[in-house]
Design goal:
The protein is mostly helical. Helices cover 78% and strands 0% of the residues.
Length: 477
């Protein structure tokens, strides 16, 4: 099944290349999302069907990342059915074919990066995500989208190059091992050169951290997320950043096994808090609601970095937070697509009285905000509560206060924007145009967000035993 998940998108792309049919575009995207999701379910139902090998495997470490990718992609593929109808009125079938094939290649690259057992192989797939998603960011061919795509390619290419240097330095640290397989690296980590290992971690953290969106190497993210089509923004924020984080997490486990953990923890903690600080500053002055969501992604990547550095109970919190952020942020970005279709602008001040225009979109917008800001019963409330608890257990009182202070600023900055957009006083001309655009939205542009938010809020009340076991087994592994 692993081979099938990696080969099928290539076959689908070849078919679409010759067919150039809009209905086939959506059909193959939905079909692949279902097959992708079935592989994840097979891990829990009948693991023998998966077909792990020396290059790719589904295991306790990466299963959460894979399932999150599957769920988000499933939601995006169904949302795209309605969203693409509006695109088809603007673009020719050939351009729509390019759009669909690049999404398939993008998801294939992220899947390969998650399933890869080898650090070098994971690096190749992460580079593949840059090439695939650059076209999708550039898709609308506006002045700002071209600028965002170039910035994305330039900055991420530098980051990938730094990561490559880090991998070379890691091979120096391994001595005569001659393997980049994660299991081999973990087993032999105590024998590695601490000097070269520490240097390699700096390069890998800053290199892959660029792709993850950690400050201070986050500069591509606000522009790319803001300019990409909304389904692509959802994939970038809710899945691509996770793929990069998985590589950092795997290298961090090697540092842990080599007893160089204090050094790695300090770097992650600094970058995590810097991400929160930058978010709190720029979010307060945001004028574009998609950029606002992009900065929120930087914040949540910072929280994952902080939780990783704390260890202990915070490891459980980071896995819960990763799940919650992906589900809610995907819903948020997809809903922003509805807002954009209605008001035809990304400017915050131009969107008012959303509740009067479309109550369903307004409720999704407000609930996504409540979820991402960790209001109960959002699952993010549990994760952030556990992180605060870990700060207190480890007696990091000042850091705990700073953590809560920065989160409060971010909550206030997002809250005032969401409330103004949903309940602000309407402008007659813009209001009438938005009401007229309501016909552009169909059920497929509401149901995915409803499902994502329902799952995120249910997990905030009840976490299934199988999820607990999976997270704990990943920790032990």
């Amino acid at each position: 099944m692993i081979s099938m998940v990696l080969i099928l998108p290539i076959i689908f792309c070849l078919i679409l290349l010759f067919a150039k049919n809009n209905k086939l575009n959506n059909f193959f995207m939905v079909l692949y999302s279902i097959i992708h999701f079935v592989l994840g379910l097979s891990y829990f139902i009948k693991p023998d069907l998966i077909g792990n090998n020396q290059y790719f495997s589904l295991n306790g470490t990466n299963i959460i990342f894979y399932i999150v990718l599957s769920i988000v992609y499933l939601a995006v593929s169904f949302y795209n059915i309605g969203y693409s109808k509006n695109l088809e009125s603007e673009f020719k079938p050939k351009k729509m074919m390019h759009y669909s094939t690049m999404i398939l290649i993008f998801v294939l690259s992220m899947t390969g990066g998650i399933l890869a057992n080898n650090l070098g192989l994971a690096w190749i797939f992460i580079e593949g995500t840059t090439l695939a998603s650059a076209y999708l960011i550039y898709f609308n061919k506006t002045k700002h989208s071209i600028e965002a795509a170039w910035k994305y390619v330039f900055i991420c290419s530098i980051g990938i190059a730094l990561a490559f240097v880090g991998i070379i330095l890691l091979t120096i640290a391994t001595g005569n091992l001659n393997s980049l397989n994660y299991n081999d690296l973990l087993a032999n980590a105590p024998n590695f050169s601490k000097f070269w290992l520490n240097i390699s971690f700096v390069f890998i953290l800053f290199g892959i951290g660029t792709k993850m969106g950690l400050a201070p190497v986050h500069f591509w993210l606000p522009d790319a997320h803001a300019e990409a089509p909304s389904p692509i923004s959802a994939l970038l924020s809710a899945t691509l950043l996770n793929c990069a984080f998985l590589i950092i997490l795997n290298v961090y486990r090697i540092m842990l096994a080599s007893t160089s953990i204090a050094y790695a923890r300090t770097l992650l903690l600094v970058m995590g808090f810097l991400s929160l600080f930058i978010t709190s500053v720029f979010l307060y002055h945001a004028k574009n609601y998609k950029r606002m969501l992009a900065y929120s992604s930087i914040e949540n990547m910072g929280i994952l970095a902080i939780a990783t550095s704390l260890g202990g109970v915070a490891y459980y919190a980071l896995m819960i937070h990763l799940i919650g952020h992906s589900l809610i942020k995907a819903s948020f970005f997809l809903t922003s697509g509805n807002v954009l279709e209605l008001f035809e602008t990304k400017r915050i001040k131009s969107v008012r009285a959303l509740f009067l225009v479309d109550k369903k979109t307004s409720w999704l917008w407000v609930l996504s905000f409540l979820g991402i800001c960790a209001f109960p019963p959002s699952v993010l409330f549990i994760s952030e509560f556990l992180i605060v608890k870990t700060f207190l257990i480890q007696k990091h009182y000042l850091l705990c206060a700073l953590f809560l202070f920065l989160l409060t600023i971010i909550l206030f900055a997002m809250g005032r924007v969401v409330i103004k957009m949903a309940y602000g006083e309407k402008t007659p001309e813009k209001f009438e145009r938005a009401v007229a655009n309501l016909k552009k939205l169909d059920l497929t542009m509401y149901i995915p967000q409803i499902c994502l938010l329902t799952l995120a809020f249910v997990l905030g009340v009840y976490i299934p035993k199988i999820l607990d076991i999976t997270i704990i087994s990943g920790l032990i592994g």
